[in-house]
Amino acid sequence: MKDLVIDLEVEKNEILKRYRALLRACKSTLEKGDKRMIRKAFDMALESHSDMRRKSGEPYIYHPIAVAQIAAEEIGLGTTSIVCALLHDVVEDTDVTLDDIEREFGKKVAKIIDGLTKISGVFDTNSSLQAENFRKMLLTLADDVRVILIKLADRLHNMRTMEFMPRDKQLKLSSETVYLYAPLAHRLGLYAIKSELEDLSMKYMERETYQFIKNKLNEKKAEREKFIRDFSEPVKKIVEGQGLVADVFGRPKSIHSIWNKMKKKAIPFEEVYDLFAIRIILDSTPENEKADCWKAYSIVTDLYRPNPDRLRDWISSPKANGYESLHTTVMGPRGQWVEVQIRTKRMNEIAEKGFAAHWKYKESSTDSGLDLWVQKVRDLLKNPESNALDFLDDFKMNLFSDEIFIFTPKGALIQLPLNATALDFAFEIHTDVGASCIGAKVNHKLVPLSYKLQNGDQVEIITSSKQVPKEDWLNFVVTAKAKAKIKSSLKEEKRRIAETGKEILERKLKSLKITYNSENIHKLSYYFKLPSTLDLFFEVAKGTIDMKDLKEYQASEKVIENKPQDKIEAEQVQSLVRTLKAKDADMLLIGEDMQKIDYKLANCCNPIPGDDVFGFVTVSDGIKIHRTNCPNAAKLMANYGYRVVKAKWTNQQELAFLTGLRITGIDEVGLINQLTTVISHDFKVNIRSITVDSDNGIFEGTVMIYVNDTHHLDNLTKRLKMIKGISTVTRFDSIEKAS
Ligand code: MN
Predict the structure, then answer these.
(1) 572 with 507, same domain?
(2) Residue 639, domain extent
(3) Listed residues: CB within 5 A of ion ligand 1
(4) Catalytic residue list
C-alpha cells in the first residue's frame, strides 16, 4: 500500500454507516432486546479489532459487519447468528477469550464462536489433517448448523474482497471454495451463494476464460434483454389477467455454469443456448400456491410450446435440500428453447436462501430434509469403522455427481470429470507427463494407466523417457485434453514413419520402372484403397505393402507412362492456354465457350453463375471453375499461378447449377410442404434431394437444388425465410460435406 492517508473521523462515520445498514438488513427478525445484543457484539468487535486492518488497508471491522450482513440479508439468519458473525474472528485474532464471550453473550453464542474458531485454518495442513478437521467442523455443524452458515458468509465475503491478496493465496482460497464451500452451499440449498462462490473462484483460477465469457455476455446484453422482454410481457399480461400477482423476469446463468456447459458438451460459447432462465414468482397464499403455479404453467405453455421431456415438478416432491419449483422448457418466439421456472415467493426465498428461510415459515422442522441430512452426517461420524479420510470421500461422493477431485503428491487439487483415469490425470498435469506415463501410484498403490480414479485419490505419476503415446490409450481417456494430445502425437509418429515409407516406395518404384510422381502415387493409394498418400507411405514402411503387391499393381495397370510426368503436364497446360488465347481474349467466358473448351465446375465449392470465379487448368480433367472464395483457392493460386485463367459468367439463363441450402426452424405442420411449394412451384426450381431432421421440435433440413445464378438463389433464399417457422437459410460451400 502506498501513501495510504487515513482520516479517522471519516472512517468512524463510515463504520457507523455500515453498522446502521446491517441493522436495517435484520430489521424483520428483530425482537425486543435484540438490538441491544447486536450493539454489544458490534462494540466488542470494534474495540478488539481496533488496531487491525485488512489487506486492502480498510479497518478490519468492515469484514465482520459485512459477514453479519450476508448472514442476515442473503441467508436470512436471526439475531444469534448476527451476533456470532460480528464476533466470528474475535477469539481467533484478538485477546478476547471464549470465557469472555460466554460471560457477555451466553453459552449458545460461545459454542458457535468456538465452532467457528476451530474450523478456521482447517485447510492449512496436509490432506489427512484436512479431513480430520473437516470432520470436526461437521461435528460442530451437527450441533448447530449456524456454524456452517456463518462460515459460508465469512468465506463469501473473503472471496468478494480478494483482489488485494497475493496470487498464491487467491488460488488457495479459490480451490478450497470450489472443493468444499460451494458444494456445501449447494447441499444446504443456498443456490445464490453457491453460484457466486463458483464464479468468484473461477475469476481467480481461470482468469482468461472468465473474462472471455464475461465479455461475450456483455456483447449480447441488449439483444438478450429485448428477447426477455418480448418473452415475458405477454406472459405477465395473461397471468395478471387471471387474477394472479406475478413478477416475471430473466435470470442470467452464472459464468461458471456456462463454462461447465461448454466443457461438458464441448461446444463454443455461441452454442450455449440457455444463457438465462425466465422466472415467474407468484404472490400466493399457502393453500393456493400449488394450484397457482400450475395455472401459471398452463398459461406459459399455451403461449409457447413446451418440451414434454423437460417438465420438472419439485413442488409435489421437493428436492432433499428443500428446493421447490416448477420447471419447464418451452420454445421461445425465435425458435429458441427457454427454461421457465415457476414458483411462489416463499419457494423462491427457500431456493435462494436455503433452509434458513424454512425456519421462518415452519416453526418446527422435524420432518425437514435438513434434519435428515444432519442426522445422516451424525450417523456417519459416529460410525467408528470409518476413518476421517474415508468419511471425507463418502461425503464428497455425495456432493459431486459429475466431477472428481484428485490430489497431487504435494496436496494440490486437480478437478477431473467423472470416470477420468490415471492417464487423464497425467495429461492434466502436463502434456509431457502424459505422453511419457507408464503407470501411476494411487494412494501409494501401483495401478495401470487405465485405472479409473475415485474422488479424493492421491495420485503420483510414473514416467519413462522410453514411453510413447499408444493408439489404445484413446479407449480409456475421457478428458478432451488427453484425447487431443494423444491423437496429435500419434499423427506425428505416423508422419515420421511415413517419411521412411516414402523413401522405400521411391526406391521400389524406381526398380519397377514406375515414375515416382503425384499422379502415380494417387493411383497407388486408390488401388490399395487407402484414404491418403500418407497412409500409403505408412503401410509401405510397416511392410503391409511390399514388392509383391506393387508388382500386382503394375500388372493390373496395362500401360505405365515412362515419360517424365511434368513434361506431359507442361505440354497439356500450354496447349489449353493456347486454345484460350486464340480466341483473342484471356478471359474464359463460362457458358459461351462450353462447346469449345472442356471445363467443369469444381465440386469443392460448387460455383453458380454470379459467383466470383476463376479457371484452373488441370492435367486430366480440363479446366475446373472454382469460386474465388473456395477453401482451395489460395493454395491453387499460390502454387500453380501459371495454371490459373480468368473466368466470368455470360448472361445465359438456360443452364441450371446444383447447389445446397441448409434450413433450420421450428417444426410446424406442413412446413416441408410449404418449403417444396415455394421452391418448385413459385420458383420453378428443380429439387434433387431433400433431407430433414427433426429433433425436439427443431427442424433442420438440407435441400439440393438446381438454380440459374446467385441472383436467382438470393431471391429464393429471401422467400424461404419468409415462411413461418423457418429461422435460417444458408447456402453451404461444399456439396461433398452435405452428402
Ligand atoms: Mn472472517
Answers:
(1) no
(2) 566-649
(3) 89, 154
(4) 92-93
